[in-house]
Amino acid sequence: MGNCCRKNCSCLSGVLPCVFNNEKRATSYTTNDIVIQNIHINTQHDGPQLPPRFENRREPQINTYVALYSYEGRTPDELSFKAGDKMVILDTTHASWWKAKLSRTRGKTEGYVPFNYVAPVSSIESMPWFFKDTKRTAAERLLLQPGNITGSFLIRESESQKGEYSLSVFDGIAVKHYRLRKLDDGGFYITAKSKFISMNELVEYYGKREEGLCCKLLKPCLKTAIPLPPDLCYNTADHWEIDRNSLKCLKKLGQGQFGEVWEGLWNNTIPVAIKTLKTGSMNPQDFLREAQFMKNLRHPKLIQLYAVCTLEEPVYIITELMKHGSLHTYLQNDNGTSIHIPHQVDMAAQVASGMAYLETQSFIHRDLAARNVLVGENSVYKVADFGLARVFTGDDVYEAKNDTKLPLKWTAPEAVKYNKFTVKSDVWAFGILMFEIVTYGKMPYPGLTGRQALDKLEQGYRIPKPFTCPHDLYEIMLQCWNAKPEERPTFETLQWKLEDYFETEASSYLEANSFVR
Ligand code: ATP
Fold first, then answer.
1. What is the CATH number of the domain that holds 104?
2. Where is it predominantly found (predicted)?
């Protein structure tokens, strides 16, 4: 089906246009909650070129913010606050830690807050029912969690189609979805009969009457997952070589080819994963160069690199901790007991989403496989170990004697033969990863060595359709294994194909009226 891009897709990589003047001064006024002072928001965009993570920064629209979650300050520079606390944002110069002032009279009132814990007061983002960047399948999963009731609902914004909103409602049996249509003047409606100037008004209205919906909107969906702060703390955002004595290893989680991974604590409080690299497995200088870039790669479907200890060997890599470990083991342990096709498609879609972000950054993973995808709580899947393959010493390190450990079976033929690693060789590996997902972690090309598989591939052989794999899903795998790299799909295309896998134009969204339910 080629490399077609999603209809009306909006570019994910684009820098949002700055709608502000370079300097903005807020007027001074008083509300019941808070005194807003004359403040200076620096929204200047000059200076050195910003690294990728700065591109998606949220420019504050107004300076009065509300805390979405509680946060315990981790260093003296940071503020502690409770969900619902209001604050004035004083400085947004730093992309991920904003300087804020709380209106309370006791305790520390000024300090840094993680930008993803706050939202402008009265904005859609600050509403308890707003679940930004939540896909249809994820919305279903969330609403079907225990604790939600008939009438639990959420409104979500599409990650890829900015400005498109959908309402998902639990009717006691299943989750129903409705598209919110936008009016030219900024209002919203579900049926043309009832139009609203704001989403809040729409929610309030349907909270009192069904009027064609499957039920009234009674309670926002429970928010179980609290997002991670963007860094270990404000101080490690830019200085991320940390003292190894600040780490405590608690439990060994696993062993890779290049070292061990431990569950641990940073500063005795913050859970982290600590990867210890075998002495001599890489040149620390090369690693630091790569890590510099990796640190700036930020996406909900990528494991966040927090910090490193490179001053002495063994080098440590500190990342976010994922509760359920590697996807490979997770799939093998389940082996079809509770994981079925919808969930498997969702896993693949989440990985494609992380990879689509890497694609926008022209960053090549080089070792995409189920062993390098990690599983968190609430069925969250994240891509790990991106870029690491390049810094391990010895280009042939993967071609070790033990064939089961070779990633040859994941590597595109042109990458093996000509060392030509590109985003398209990552796409090839993604096809193999899809095979691992549908087969619950089976080894690709069973009975063949990596070299034998490669020879067969060159004669046009491809992994046959696994027994339980739906035909459409297998079609996508075959596209990833196109002999011509340029004809393989982009990750952006893969992402939407997988996200929309169960949707058809006619059946996916309900119309709200008294006849159609
Ligand atoms: P290879 O070295 O061939 O890439 P691998 O990816 O399994 O193999 P590691 O990345 O060293 O090797 O990871 C070893 C194991 O540690 C993983 O399989 C996983 O179970 C666990 N692990 C790694 N990183 C984390 C993490 N951030 N959170 C939780 N568990 C992790």
1. 2.30.30.40
2. cytoplasm
Task: For residues 309 and 418, state if they share a domain.
Answer: no
Whether the predicted pLDDT of 326 surpasses 70: yes
**338 falls within a domain:** yes
Are residues 135 and 103 part of one domain? no
Residue 348 · residue 304 · CB < 8 Å: no
Strand, coil or helix: 264: strand
Q: Which one from 367, 395, 426, 472 is the annotated catalytic residue?
A: 367
Predicted confidence band of residue 226 (pLDDT cuts 50, 70, 90): confident
Whole-angstrom CA distances from 169 to 143, 151, 204, 436 are 8, 6, 14, 33
CA dist list (Å): 87 to 14, 82, 456 = 29, 11, 63
Query: Residue 373, exposed/middle/buried by CB under 10 A (0-12, 13-18, 19+)?
Result: buried
Choose the final residue of a domain: 260, 291, 319.
319
Atom of ligand 1 nearest to the CA of 323: 29
Residue 158, pLDDT score = 64
Same domain, 485 and 377: yes
Beta bridge partners of residue 271, listed in sequence order: 265
Q: Quick: pLDDT tens for 188-221.
A: 989 888 999 989 999 999 999 988 899 999 999 9
Domain match, 112 and 88 both: yes
**Rounded to the nearest 5°, which phi and psi values hold at 388?**
-70, -35
Closest residue by Cα to atom 22, ligand 1, is: 325
Q: Can you tell me the mean pLDDT for 27-31? A: 27
> In what helix (H) or strand (E) does residue 424 lie, and over which residues does it extend?
helix 423-438
Catalytic, 367? Answer: yes
User: Mean of the pLDDT values across residues 365-393?
Assistant: 85
Asked if residue 206 lies in contact with residue 213, where contact means CB atoms within 8 angstroms, the answer is: yes
Residues 270 and 155 in one domain: no
Residue from 291, 268, 367 nearest 326 by CA: 367
DSSP readout, 56-92? TPPPPSSSEEEESS-B--SSTTBPPB-TT-EEEEEE-
Mutate to test the pocket of ligand 1, among 249, 253, 392 (most ligand atoms within 8 A of CB): 253
**pLDDT tens, residue by residue, 395-433:** 433 443 333 345 899 999 999 998 888 999 999 999 999
Question: Is residue 234 one of the residues assigned to a domain?
Answer: no
Query: What confidence score (pLDDT) does residue 497 get?
Result: 93
For residue 489, the enclosing domain spans 327-499
Average pLDDT over residues 96-103: 93
How many domains does one find in the chain? 4
* Axis crossing angle, helix 423-438 with helix 341-360, rounded to the nearest 10: 170
| Percentage of residues in the chain having pLDDT higher than 90 | 57
Say which CATH number the domain at 383 has. Answer: 1.10.510.10
